[in-house]
């Protein structure tokens, strides 16, 4: 049998096998295996969470919200990394654009070495701040500005905002929320919720409210 006749017979046999149903079963089995692998890769729904705080008070009002949120999230098995920006070596973005928006940053500080790898791997980023002149603290804003260094690599993540303020007027958090909502839209994030603790100027004031429990419940709801 010459080579051309051999190929003709072989191909004919494979076509018969496929049409008989065996080939279809093989494809279906492969598809099922692929689906099973995809589901396995999803894991058990546990998330990598990065909590970034911006308060210079270690035991302040917003620190309590962070504590309670982490307690709730960890109780559900989520992995949490906390970065207290006010107590780290951090440098504002200089706008040099040496990173070309995809890293690395010229500043080898705690944001670049410690926080950035965690944020890139995170499923959810939680921003926690006291309200300073109707916006986030400078420490937290510094971290956000440095996201420019890996800009589009943050697309599609989930996010949460938690904030505290002394004021209790109904407009107190409007500017901060507008800022956050704009950030969510620009970064293509999915907002998972907010805890806006108004009328909480001191630790004792917030401890008498339901806001800490709201933060805990938000963590547990993920």
Question: Short description, anyone?
Answer:
With 222 residues, this protein is α/β, with parallel strands linked by helices. It has eight helices and five strands; from the N terminus they run ααβαβαβαβαβαα.
Main sheet: which strands, in order across? 2-1-3-4-5
Range of strand content: 15-25%
Summed over residues and divided by their number, the pLDDT gives a mean of 86
Main beta sheet: 5 strands, parallel
Radius of gyration: 25 Å
Structural class: alpha/beta
Residue windows where pLDDT falls under 50 for at least 5 positions: 1-42
Supply the number of helical segments: 8
Element pattern in H and E: HHEHEHEHEHEHH
* Head-to-tail CA distance between termini: 66 Å
Characterise the protein shown here:
With 222 residues, the protein is an alpha/beta fold. The protein is built from eight helices and five strands, in the order H-H-E-H-E-H-E-H-E-H-E-H-H. Strands 2-1-3-4-5 form a five-stranded parallel sheet, with helices on both faces. Helix 6 (174-187) links the parallel strand 4 and strand 5 (190-197). The protein is globular. 30% of the residues are buried. The model is unreliable at 1-42 (pLDDT under 50).
